[in-house]
Amino acid sequence: MSAEVSMIHPLGPKTVEDWLAEEQPVDGSRLELIWGYLHMTPPPGGPHQYAAGELFVALRAAVRAADRPDLTALPAVGVRISTPFRTSIIPDVVVVHASAEHTTFAAEDVLLAAEVWSPGNSREERDTKIASYASARVPYLWIVELPDGKPARFWAYTLGESGYRQEVFATDGESIKAPGPVPVVVDTAQLR
Predict the structure, then answer these.
(1) Taking Cα atoms as reference points, which of 38, 39, 174, 191 lies closest to residue 114?
(2) Ramachandran assignment for 61, one of left (phi > 0), alpha (psi -120 to 50 degrees), beta (any other)
C-alpha cells in the first residue's frame, strides 16, 4: 500500500498490537484488522469450510511430497500484513516458511495465501484483501469462489512488479496445476 491509499482510506485507531490483544471470538467468527478498523465476519459456512479444507489437504500433501520441512500449510491463521497500515487478516489457508509454533505470522513468512469468497464478501473486502497481500509481497494468491448452484471457480495468481498476474482459471471440475511454492494439482470438482 502506498501513502496515497492511506489518504483515500484514513487509518483507524486500532493497531496490530491492539488486534493481537483482542479476545478472539469463540463462535468461529473472524476478527480482522483492516486499515486500523476491526472487522468481524460471521463463522464461515459449510461449503466455505469444505473448500478451504480441501485446499489445505492438497497443500499439506504437496509440501510433504516435495519433502519441504521448511514449509508449513495451515488453515485460518492470523497474518500481520502491515504495522504502518494497521492491517492483519486471516486467510483461509496459507503456506508459510516457518514452523507452526506461532500464534500469528509475519507477512514475509507467507508464501501462499488462499481465500474462499463467500456470497457475503463485499467487492470492497475482496479488493482490500488482494491489495493487502500484494503490498505485503505474498508471492502466490489463490481465490476460490462458490457461486450458488454453480461449480466452484478457482483462480491462481503470482506476484509481479505491479501486483498480481493471473496464471490459472479453472471451473466445471477441471484439474489444474496451480502455481505455488511447491507443485500442487487442484481439482475444482473436489471444492464442493
Answers:
(1) 191
(2) alpha
Question: Side-chain half-sphere of 192: how many Cα atoms within 13 Å?
Answer: 16
Beta bridge partners of 134: none
DSSP characters over 121-163: --HHHHHHHHHHHHHTT-SEEEEEE--TTS--EEEEEEEETTE
Go through the domains of the chain in sequence order and give each one's CATH number. Answer: 44-191 (3.90.1570.10)
Instruction: Give this prediction's pTM.
Output: 0.89
Dihedral, CA of residue 126, residue 57, residue 186 and residue 94, to nearest 10: 40
57-103 pLDDT tens trace: 999 999 999 999 999 999 999 999 988 888 899 999 999 999 899 98
For residues 125, 129, 132, 136, the Cα torsion angle rounded to the nearest 10 degrees is 170
Cα–Cα distance measured from residue 145 to residue 153, given in angstroms and rounded to the nearest whole number = 5
